[in-house]
Fold this sequence. Notes:
Blueprint: H1 2-12, H2 19-28, E1 46-47, H3 51-54, E2 58-59, E3 65-67, E4 74-75, E5 81-84, E6 88-96, H4 100-114, E7 121-128, E8 131-139, E9 144-153, E10 156-165, H5 169-179, E11 183-184, H6 189-195, E12 199-200, E13 208-214, E14 217-222, E15 235-243, H7 247-255, E16 260-270, E17 273-284, E18 287-297, E19 301-309, H8 315-326, E20 330-331
Parallel strand pairs: 1-7
Antiparallel strand pairs: 2-3, 3-11, 4-5, 5-6, 6-10, 7-8, 8-9, 9-10, 12-20, 13-14, 14-15, 15-19, 16-17, 17-18, 18-19
Amino acid sequence: xxxxxxxxxxxxxVKQIKSLFIVWTGCIFTSCxxxxxxxxxxxxxxxxxxKADRYQSVRVKGTCLxxxxxxxxxxxxxxxxxxxxxxxxxxxxxxxxQNVNHTIDVVLERLRQLYTYEKDGYWKIFELNGYKAxxxxxxxxxxxxxxxxxxxxQFYSAQVECRYPLAYPSLQEILLKSMxxxxxxxxxxxxxxxxxxxxxxxxxxxxxxxxxxxxxxYIYTINGIDPTPGPHLDFSISVTTMPYDSPPEKMVKxxxxxxxxxxxxxxxxxxxYSGVEFYSEGSVSxxxxxxxxxxxxxGMTSLYVxxxxxxxxxxxxxxxxxxxxxxxxxxxxx
Length: 334
């Protein structure tokens, strides 16, 4: 806990402090410093979270994932994450219908292209609570490193990740020990879906139904069909809940490096709240697609609502419908 306090102080410290002093301070508060590469992890080939340990676990809101948190970490507000004083975060995500074998293969291919094994990155495949898993430890900018654990099966993938300052090597041990206690219990699926529903939406008079939920995002399609883009899907509506921030700032975060690129952006009052609307287009499966989006907030929660039309010929038909549905959205006190 003392080590975590030191990190929070460092986050708030004046940036002009010399990096050597930061490293020296980190050494004072660490019990030991590993020799050799700082990225190598000591992970057994097989890990099973004991049932006795599971009584110490907490469920991360918005997910079916449980973990024994490091001391001092609590649930982050309106995020699939645990945080220590809002200075350090451990993020959790999961996805159904996503084959973990494919996910791991893609990640490993990328790692081998960008990192030198054990020099500025480390990765290991192992078994975690009966699931195939991949742990990674990678060098990042700003003297930070990223820890990540991916696990799952043919029909499910989950990930736990965290960035931390390399100046505090014992912090890596604390974080990794916690991350390796993660397990999934799908009995809590309905509760996970409800956790982040800080809004209501009126879909009466339409055929839209909730088709998918993952990581604070709710996707609605006609009759709840599979929302994965393809010939079967003409359009979808998604609602993502987030901690409140001014709409312009949220807009920048959510349109940057996305599949859809905005061509018209303007401020707009959305359901009585200040917000931003933007029109965008992109390419999905080799075909042009268009989207209409708004971001607005009530001082406590921000909502990013996006209507995507994968069949451009029906754009003029469904744009008014998207706008009408957005007008029915109301914030919910939770």
